[in-house]
Write a structure and sequence with these properties.
The complex is a heterodimer. Chain A is of the alpha/beta class. Chain A is built from eleven helices and 14 strands. The longest helix of chain A is centred in the middle third of the chain and has 16 residues. Chain A starts with 5 loop residues before the first strand and ends in a 14-residue tail after the last helix. The longest helix of chain B is centred in the N-terminal third of the chain and has 30 residues. Classes of the chains: A alpha/beta, B mainly alpha. At the A-B interface, α2 and α3 of A face α1 and α4 of B.
C-alpha cells in the first residue's frame, strides 16, 4: 500500500485563541499500533475528534484509508471504528441487543447481526452476560462490550481513546490482548493514553504530544533511552536537609529536584546501595526512598524541561475527560 | 476475525439506507417506550390525572350547567402530550451523556435518521396516550360528535403537536448540560403553559392583562382545535391556528435541534 492507513499532515485546530492541536503530523500503517501519549488537555482527544469527523480541522489534512476527513467524512466514517473514553452503549439494552443494534446500523441483516453479536460476545468473554442489561455490567465488561461494538463490521482502522482508563489490571490485560489480536489481523490502530506503560505494552511507535504539539516521536525503546532507565526517588521534606542531600548526591549524573523529591537516574540496581551510602555518609535520613521504572511523568520531565523549566505537566488519575 | 480489508456499509441506495437506519433506531426507542416505567408515563399517568380532575371538578361545574368531561378531555390530552415531549428530551440527554451520540456520529448514519426515529417514537407514544384517554373519557361523556374523519383529525393534531413539543424539548435536551437543570427547564414551564390557556378556563374569565397571552398561547390553539374536532358546537375553522403553531415550531425547533446536535460533541 502506497499510503499509510492514517496519514496526518500539519493538522491544526483552535478553540478561540488557543490552539488545541498545533501542526501535528504522523502516520499509522496497517497492522500496527501507534500510541498518542500525553497528559490531560494535551490535545489527544481533539486529534481523535478530528480523525473521527466529530470536529473539522482548521487547517492541515488527515486521510484515513484514503478518505479525507474534510472532503469525504462519509468515507471516513465507513472506514473507522471508534471506542471512546466512555463506554458508549445503551445501558437499557442487553449486551447482545447493543451489538445487534450497531450491526444493523452498519447494514447487517437481522440474522447476520445476531450471528455476529454471538461471535463477538464469545470472543470478548461476554457470552454469559450477553442477555443482561449493559447497565449492570462492570467497568471492564462495559469497555469490552464497547470495543466489541466497534468491531461488529470489520473496518481497516480502529481508534481507541484512553481505552483502559479506570480499569482494574486484569480487565486492562484482557483489553490489551484484544488490541494486539486486532493489530495482528491487519488493523491500523491509533491509541491515546496517559500511561507510558500502556503505550509501551501495545505500540510500535509512540507520538508524545503536549500543549497541542508533537514533542517527541519514536519507538518505546528510543523514548525510554531519553529518560534513561529506572530512577530512584528520595523524598526529604526538610528543605535544608534536601539541599545537603543534593550535595551528597553530587556524584550522580542528572539529579533533579521535583517538589520535595530528589530524582536520581540509575544505570543499574547496584546504584541503589551507593545512593543510600551517600545519604548515610552525610547523616541524612530520607522520608521515603523508592525505585521506579520510567513513568510518563519522567518522560515528560525529560522532554519538556527545556521549554518549561522545572515545572512538569500535571497528570491526574485519568478521571477527567481531556 | 477475518482480515478487515473491506470497508463497512456496502453501497446501498441512500434512501434504503436511511429507512434501515430509521427502523433500527426507532426499534431501539420503542423498546424504551414500552418499558414498564415508560408505559406508566404514557398510560397510567394521564388516567390518574383524568380521574383526579374529573372527580374534583365535574360536580361543581355540572351545577353551573357545564358538561366537564367533554370539555376537559382535550386539555388532558395536551397535558399527556407534554409529558411525552418531556420524557423524550430526558431520553436524548441520557444518550448524550452516555456518549452514544458521539458513537453514532462516528458511524455512517445520517443525523436526520436519528431525528426521524425520535419523531416516529413520540408519534407512536402520542397515539397510545390519546387513544387511552379518549377511551376512558368516553365514560365521562366524551364523544366524537363530528364523525370518524374528525376523530382521525383529532389524533393527527395530537401527533403533530407532540412532534412540535418534542422538537422544542429536544433543543433543551441537547443543550442544557446537567440533568437536574434540564428537568427544571422542562417541568417548570409545563404547568403555566397548560393553565394559562383556554384548557381549563375560558379566555374571557382571565384577568384583562392575561387575556392576550391566553389567546395567543399555542396550548389554547391546540386545545381549541381538539375541541373543534370532537365537539359539534364549535366550527372546524378553529383547527388552523394549531396547525400553524405546530408547523412553525417544528420548522424553527427542528433547525435549532439540528444545530444543538452538531454541537453535542464539541
Amino acid at each position: 500500500m502506497a499510503e499509510a492507513a492514517i496519514e496526518i499532515d500539519r493538522l491544526r485546530k483552535s478553540f478561540g485563541p488557543k490552539a488545541a492541536v498545533d501542526d501535528v503530523s504522523f502516520s499509522v500503517a496497517a497492522g500496527t499500533v501507534v500510541g498518542l501519549l500525553g497528559p490531560n488537555g494535551a490535545g489527544k482527544t481533539t486529534v481523535i475528534n478530528c480523525l473521527t469527523t466529530l470536529l473539522t480541522p482548521d487547517s492541515g489534512t488527515a486521510r484515513l484509508a484514503g478518505h479525507d476527513v474534510t472532503t469525504d467524512p462519509a468515507g471516513v466514517r465507513a472506514s473507522v471504528a471508534v471506542t471512546g473514553q466512555f463506554a458508549a452503549v445503551d445501558e437499557t439494552l442487553t449486551g447482545r441487543e447493543n451489538l445487534v443494534f450497531f450491526g444493523r446500523l452498519l447494514r447487517l441483516t437481522r440474522t447476520g447481526a445476531s450471528a455476529r453479536a454471538a461471535e463477538l460476545l464469545d470472543q470478548f468473554g461476554l457470552s454469559e452476560a450477553g442477555d443482561m442489561p449493559a447497565g449492570h455490567y462492570s467497568g471492564g465488561m462495559r469497555r469490552r462490550l464497547d470495543l466489541a461494538a466497534s468491531l461488529v463490521v470489520p473496518r481497516p482502522i480502529l481508534v481507541l481513546d484512553e481505552p483502559t482508563t479506570g480499569l482494574d489490571p486484569r480487565s486492562r490485560q484482557a483489553l490489551w490482548d484484544a488490541v494486539r489480536r486486532l493489530a495482528r489481523d491487519g488493523m491500523a490502530i491509533l491509541l491515546t493514553t496517559q500511561y507510558l506503560e500502556e503505550a509501551d505494552a501495545l505500540a510500535e511507535r509512540i507520538v508524545v504530544i503536549d500543549e497541542g504539539r508533537v514533542i517527541a516521536e519514536g519507538t518505546p525503546k528510543e523514548l525510554k533511552k531519553d529518560v534513561g532507565g529506572s530512577v530512584c526517588e528520595v523524598q526529604i521534606s526538610d528543605a535544608g536537609d534536601r539541599a545537603r542531600a543534593t550535595g551528597a548526591l553530587a556524584g550522580f549524573v542528572g539529579v533533579k529536584e521535583r517538589d520535595d523529591v530528589l530524582v536520581v537516574p540509575m544505570r543499574g540496581t547496584d546504584e541503589l546501595s551507593a545512593i543510600v551510602r551517600a545519604l548515610d555518609g552525610a547523616a541524612l535520613k530520607a522520608d521515603d526512598i523508592a525505585v521506579h521504572p520510567p513513568t510518563l511523568n519522567d518522560v515528560f520531565f525529560a522532554l519538556t524541561k527545556d521549554h518549561r523549566g522545572s515545572e512538569g505537566p500535571a497528570f491526574d488519575t485519568g478521571e477527567g475527560r481531556s | 476475525m477475518t482480515a478487515p480489508a473491506a470497508s463497512a456499509a456496502p453501497a446501498a441506495p441512500a434512501g434504503q439506507a436511511f429507512l434501515n437506519d430509521v427502523q433500527v433506531l426507532a426499534e431501539r426507542d420503542f423498546k424504551r417506550s414500552f418499558s414498564k416505567v415508560a408505559l406508566f408515563g404514557t398510560v397510567v399517568q394521564p388516567l390518574v390525572f383524568f380521574g383526579i380532575f374529573y372527580a374534583t371538578f365535574s360536580g361543581m361545574l355540572a351545577d353551573k350547567g357545564i358538561d366537564y368531561g367533554p370539555s376537559v378531555t382535550p386539555t388532558l390530552v395536551v397535558q399527556a402530550l407534554m409529558f411525552i415531549a418531556i420524557a423524550s428530551a430526558m431520553a436524548l440527554a441520557t444518550d448524550r451523556g452516555s456518549g452514544l451520540f458521539n458513537r453514532l456520529r462516528t458511524m455512517p448514519i445520517s443525523s436526520s435518521a436519528l431525528g426521524a426515529a425520535r419523531l416516529l417514537t413520540v408519534a407512536v407514544e402520542a397515539v397510545i396516550s390519546t387513544v387511552v384517554i379518549a377511551l376512558v373519557a368516553h365514560l365521562a361523556g366524551f364523544r366524537f360528535h363530528e364523525g370518524p374523519l374528525a376523530a382521525i383529525g383529532f389524533l393527527l393534531v395530537a401527533v403533530l403537536f407532540t412532534m412540535a413539543l418534542a422538537a422544542v424539548t429536544a433543543t433543551l435536551g441537547l443543550t442544557v448540560r446537567s440533568q437536574e437543570a434540564l428537568a427544571a427547564c422542562l417541568y417548570l414551564p409545563y404547568l403555566p403553559l397548560l393553565v394559562v390557556s383556554t384548557g381549563f378556563v375560558p379566555a374571557n374569565l382571565f384577568p384583562g392583562w392575561l387575556q392576550p397571552v391566553v389567546n395567543v398561547s399555542p396550548v389554547s390553539a391546540v386545545v381549541e382545535a381538539l375541541r373543534a374536532l370532537s365537539d359539534s358546537s364549535t366550527g372546524t375553522g378553529r383547527v388552523w391556528p394549531a396547525l400553524v403553531w405546530c408547523a412553525g415550531l417544528i420548522l424553527l425547533c427542528g433547525w435549532t435541534t439540528a444545530r444543538a446536535f452538531r454541537k453535542v460533541t464539541k
